[in-house]
Amino acid sequence: MSHSKNFLLSQLEPHVLTQIGPALSIVNLQAGDVLAETHQRIEKVYFPHSGIISCVVKLSGGDAIATGMIGSDGAFGASQALDDRVSLNHVMMQVAGVASVISSDRIREAAVKFPSFRVLLIKYEEFLFSQVQQTAACNAVHKVQARACSWLLRMHDLVGVDLPLTQEFLAQMMGVRRTSVTEVAGDLQKAGMITYGRGQIHIVDLKQIRNSACECDEDIRSHYRRMFDSEAKAQ
After folding, report:
1. What are the strands of the beta sheet with 34-36, ordered from one edge?
2. CATH number for the segment(s) 143-213
3. In this structure, which long-range contacts are made by residues 188-197, counting pairs with CB atoms below 8 Å and at least 24 apart in sequence?
């Protein structure tokens, strides 16, 4: 399997990818796999080909709120590994997938040897930070239905129209009551936007969901385009 199925790795010059390729391994990751715990030193860096990695803040009362999602458009652990820092979140696989994995020691060596690689990794970390900030603002001011639609759009970008997602998990990730998500899911299904059952949500009408989402989804897309459109056009 090609490492270039990850967007960031696909942007590397061929000779750079050839150089670091032997240090990369491809792994299958299952839903629920924990990639890092809060305050744990980053030992591995993940470049997803598929699936979704969620960064989660755990609260003392047992609640958990998702602050960002990473898919084939990014990486987890790169900037922390470069500076030998720890994870600030509980990080887990939200949706099963495949990833290229490299040790922190090897990625530090590659970043020193290939400055363009280091710049790419830092640029993605800046985007991820902007996603966290946007999520915090969204949770503070936007209604549950608009927020739910934004999460569905982000997940659709990463895995498509069939989302392995329970209402309970969505409620936990959004930091709201299960009853609130149940009501929203019912309204979205009645409006013909989704169908759901047995831990699966199927997106029926993407256009309606986009129209019902808050501006945060488009703001996050805009951040990504500004940072990476030149790289994408160069492919």
Report:
1. 34-36, 90-95, 52-58, 64-70
2. 1.10.10.10
3. 188/145, 188/148, 188/149, 188/212, 193/149, 194/152, 196/167
**Among 72, 209, 90, CA closest to 147:** 209
Residue, of 124 and 231, whose pLDDT is higher: 124
The pLDDT assigned to 202 comes to 94
pLDDT in tens, 133-180: 888 888 888 999 999 999 899 899 999 999 998 888 888 778 788 888
What are the tokens at 46? Answer: 């993940």
Q: What would the two tokens of residue 112 be? A: 């020193």
pTM of the model: 0.89
Question: Is-contact 144 185, C-beta < 8 A?
Answer: no
**Is CATH 3.30.70.60 the classification given to domain 3-139?**
no
* Three-state secondary structure call for residue 216: helix
Residue spans of the domains in the chain: they are 3-139, 143-213
